[in-house]
Design a protein that fits this description.
This is Outer membrane beta-barrel protein. Residues 1-20 form the signal peptide. The protein has 192 residues and is mainly beta. The chain has one helix spanning 2-15, and strands spanning 27-44, 47-67, 70-83, 90-102, 110-125, 128-145, 150-165, 170-186. The chain is built from 1 helix and 8 strands. It is elongated.
């Protein structure tokens, strides 16, 4: 317990002196890990069915601050899904654009952000292509700047995706998940 208290005290002390690099011309590099429960609806030849399952996703971010507090960029992802009641799990990967906005002043140690993503990807099961998917994600969270470059973040995410399966049917998935991650804010350099 003493170790945990000491960790949070050091974390708090470090955050008191940090200034975030969320200003125009800087870069954002990082990622997060999310876990959530999926709920889906499938449609095959007019027959509808519902399903549930769990998903684990690893997302990376590479963005550029076009104005203060607003970054745009690309986010590749890798995911693992396990439908409830099925022996077949699937893996997926893809990429898409994102935009992220920080709501508080750049000098704040703790900042609130919102991120909107669109993605396109493929999923595979048992080594064979299973589906093509596209969708969007809305992410809201808190970034805690440990120093002027590194932020720890926690977010609540809402995802909607549509899958077109090779076997001829389609499905829509919606899920909420919780994400944790780190972002590195790289300061622009100037040539003297």
């Amino acid at each position: 317990m003493k170790t945990l208290t000491l960790f949070f005290f050091i974390l708090f002390a470090l955050t008191l002196t940090s200034n975030a690099q969320i200003t125009k011309g800087n870069w954002l590099v990082g990622g997060n890990l999310t876990y959530g429960i999926q709920e889906g609806e499938s449609n095959s030849n007019g027959n509808k069915s519902t399903s549930k399952g769990s998903a684990l996703n690893l997302n990376a971010d590479l963005g550029y601050f076009v104005i203060n507090k607003l970054t745009v960029g690309l986010t590749p992802y890798f995911g693992f899904g396990n439908p409830e009641g099925s022996n077949n799990s699937s893996i997926g990967f893809g990429i898409g654009p994102f935009a992220r906005y920080y709501f508080l002043k750049p000098e704040k140690t703790i900042n609130i952000f919102s991120q909107l993503e669109y993605y396109y990807g493929n999923s595979y099961s048992n080594g064979k292509k299973e589906s093509e998917s596209n969708g969007y994600s809305i992410k809201n969270g808190v970034a805690i700047f440990l120093n002027n470059s590194i932020a720890f973040e926690v977010s609540l995410n809402y995802n909607v995706s549509k899958n077109n399966y090779v076997s001829g049917y389609d499905s829509k998935f919606k899920d909420f998940n919780i994400g944790v991650g780190f972002q590195i804010h790289l300061e622009k350099t100037t040539n003297q």
